[in-house]
Amino acid sequence: MKDSNCIFCKIANGEIPSKTLYEDDQFRVILDLGPATKGHALILPKEHYANLYELPDDTAAAAMKLAKKMATQMSRKLGADGLNLVQNNGEAAGQTVMHFHLHLIPRYVNDGQHILWNPGESTPEELEAIKNQIVE
Ligand code: AMP
Ligand code: ZN
Fold it and tell me: 54-100 pLDDT, tens per residue?
C-alpha cells in the first residue's frame, strides 16, 4: 500500500525525482538530500510501512540483503574507511520521515560526524532486571 501524503512513497515510486543508486520491484536506494557524509544513502521500500515494527519479515530480510550489497559497492567505489547502518524508529529515536528507511552512511577518518553514543554504566543486577523485563 502507498500513502498519498508520504514523500518517501512518492520518491520510492518515482513520482518525485531522486538521485537513484539502485531500483528493483521492492526498493529504491537514493542519495540523502542532507548527507551526513559523502555518499549518505537511504534504502526505501516501495510499499508504505511507517517503521521497523510494521515491516513484513520478508521485506526486512530483503532490506538487509540489499544493505549488504550497497554497503559493499559504496565503500569500494567511494574509498570509505567504514560505514554505519542507521535506522530510526519514532520521534524519540530521531525519525523525521514516517516511512521506513535504512540509512547507509559511509565513514571517513576524521569526517567530523558523531553517530556513536556515550557508553553508560550498569550493575549486573540492573542488567538482569532489564533482561527479564524484555524476555519474560
Ligand atoms: P530520519 O531522521 O531517520 O527520519 O531520516 C530522514 C532522512 O531523510 C534525513 O537524513 C533527511 O536528510 C532525508 N530526506 C528528507 N527528505 C528527503 C528527500 N526529499 N530526498 C532525500 N532525502 C530526504
Ligand atoms: Zn510512505
Answer: 999 999 999 999 999 999 999 999 999 999 999 999 999 999 999 99
For residue 31, which atom of ligand 1 is closest to its CA?
21
Please name every residue paired with 43 in a beta bridge, in sequence order, or none if there are none: 29, 102
Which ligand 1 atom is at minimum distance from the Cα of 101?
Answer: 3
pTM of the model: 0.96
